[in-house]
Every structure is written in C-alpha cells, then in structure tokens.
Amino acid sequence: MNEKMNVEGTDKIEELLMVMMESKESIEPILDMLISIAKSGAVEKFSRILGDLSASDPSYLVGIFSSEESMRGLAKLLGLFSSLLAAAGSETMTDIIKALSFNSDAISESMVTGAKNPERFGLMKLMSMLKDPDFASGMTAIINAIKVVGKLLKDIEK
C-alpha cells in the first residue's frame, strides 16, 4: 500500500511538473517576482516581525489562527490577494499601479500640502483649472472611476 501511495504521489508530482512546463511563460514572471522578494530581504523582515510578535506573546499568534473571525479575515485577505493577482494580469492595471506606486511620495506630499494649506476655490477658479490638461485628465479619470465604483457598490449585497 505504501508503494501504491508513492506511485500515486509521484504521478501527481509529474503531472504538476508537466502542467508547469506547459505554462512556463506564465509562471516564470511569478517566480522572478518571488526571487526578487526573497533577495530584497522582505521575507526575513516579515519573519522577524512574526518572531517579535510570538516572542512577546505566543498566545497572540495562537489566537489569530484559532479565532473564527481571524480565519474569515484571512480568507477575505486571500480573496483580495487573488483579485489583485487577476488585476495584475491586465497590462493597463499593472501600468496604473506602477505609476501610482512609483510616484506615491509626490502624490502623498501634494495631498498633505493641500490639506495643511487649503485653497479657496470659487467657480471661476475651478473653471480655469479645467483648462489645464493634467487637471482635466485627472478629473476625468476620477469621475469615470467614481461612476464605476458607484455602479459596483450598488450591486453588493449587504
């Protein structure tokens, strides 16, 4: 019986390897990303954070993995992660995410500066700002996104 399990297990591993080889072009970018994450030291940092949590309070980690609420949250997080992976499959979405993330410092600085030093906008000022092509493009993009988000939110069941 043990011999049969080894053969069956080997068959499954061989099947997995065959599938991976058939879709090599799809898997290589993911592997490259995982390798770069490992080389960046992010795995060690995450491991150190988990180690710090568990060293100070081992019951904390036990509570996370034994709580139904935490497990639901983890399941939702995994669903979100798979959604992000699906979105990353879209070249346009990937370009948007890169543009926003690589310029996040400039975006956040402008938001904080605007919040700390608010300008008064009258109708005439807004109308003149719409003549700026960058402002008009940004407003159009945001308005279109708001329309889509509004439609999607209406379809969510409570």
Layout of SSEs?
Layout: H1 2-22, H2 24-40, H3 42-56, H4 58-66, H5 68-88, H6 91-102, H7 104-116, H8 123-129, H9 133-155
Helix pairs in contact: 3-4
Describe the structure using short key phrases:
158 residues, mainly alpha, disordered N terminus
What does this structure look like?
The chain is an all-alpha fold. It has 2 domains: 2-121, no CATH class; 122-158. The chain has helices at residues 2-22, 24-40, 42-56, 58-66, 68-88, 91-102, 104-116, 123-129, 133-155. The chain is extended and about 70 Å long. The chain starts with a helix and ends with a helix. Residues 1-5 have low confidence and may be disordered.
Q: Per DSSP, what share of the residues sits in E-state strands of 2 or more residues?
A: under 5%
Largest sheet: none
Could you say how many structural domains there are in total? 2
What is the succession of H and E elements?
HHHHHHHHH
Our measurement of the CA-to-CA distance between the termini, rounded to an integer number of angstroms, reads: 51 Å
Shape: extended
Low-confidence parts, pLDDT < 50 over ≥5 residues?
Answer: 1-5
The level of helicity is over 70%
The count of DSSP E runs of length 2 or more, i.e. the number of strands, is: 0
